[in-house]
Amino acid sequence: MRSSTSGAGRTPYDVSAEPLGYDICSEAPDESVRCIEVKPRARTGPIALTPNEWLMAQW
Question: Rounded CA gap, 2 and 5, in Å?
Answer without folding.
Answer: 5
